[in-house]
Amino acid sequence: MSEGTSQLQPLFGLARGGMGVVELAVRQGERFERLYAVKRLHEHYREDGSFQSMFLEEGRVAGLIRHPNVVGVLDAGVDERGPFLLMEYVEGIPLTSLIRAASGTLLPLELCCGVIRQVALGLHAAHELRTIEGEALDLVHRDVSPHNVMIEPDGRVVLMDFGIAKALGSDARTSTGVLKGKLAYMSPEQLSFRPATRASDLFSLGVVLFELLTSRRLYGPVKMPETADRILREDPPDLGEHRRDAPPELVSLCFELLAKEPGERPRSAQDVAERLEPFAGPATDLGEHVRAVFAEELEARRREVTDAIRLRREGERSGASSDPAAPEVAVPAPIVEPTAAAVPARSRTRWIVAAGALVLLGLGGAGLAIRSSEAEPVATPLPVAEPAPAPAVEPEPEPEPEPEPVPEPVAEVAAPEPVVPDAGAPRRTRRRARPAGAMAPEPSAGGMSSVPDWWR
Question: Higher pLDDT residue, 334 or 246?
Answer without folding.
Answer: 246
